[in-house]
Amino acid sequence: MSIAVDVSRDDMRIALSEQRVRDIVRAVCRREHVSEALISVAFVRNSRMARMNREFLGHPGATDVITFELGGTPAESGVRTIVGDIYIAPDVARDNAREHGTGVRTELVRLIVHGTLHVLGYTHDEGAGRMHGDMWRRQERIVAAIA
Questions:
Q1: Of 142, 48, 26, 134, which Cα lies nearest the Cα of 92?
Q2: What is the pTM of this model?
Q3: 83: which residues sit within 8 A by CB, 6+ positions away?
Q4: Domain span holding position 126
Q5: What DSSP element (H or E) covers 48?
Q6: pLDDT tens-digit map of 65-111
Q7: How far is the C-alpha of 21 from the C-alpha of 146, rounded, in Å?
């Protein structure tokens, strides 16, 4: 089993260690029976997130997490290697934590889990139904188990 996780912080302070971020991504992969993955997690400033949100999703302003599922590569053993990038805006995560009455660490864990599930191919509805779907329930079970 090889789950490689690269973490970058853009010289930002975040409430989780880089090792904890790697451990969270690996825990999600294990729970989802993924044994081969290359996943990067980048913590970025709101200005960069807003540019990405506008360029790739056509939405204004910074969002909390953007994920790119980059597909996968077949391995000799027949096991597909998952490849993806996760971008998280810690300042938006802090605002979300305050709004929802949760801690910043828990909100960051939630975003890492959410992004990892997207990389693994899970999707959800947009809007109000987003928090009632299968992916959200799966995400919250994982967050409760590892937070």
A1: 48
A2: 0.91
A3: 37, 38, 39, 70, 71, 72, 73, 119
A4: 2-146
A5: helix 46-52
A6: 999 988 765 555 556 789 999 999 999 999 999 998 999 999 999 99
A7: 11
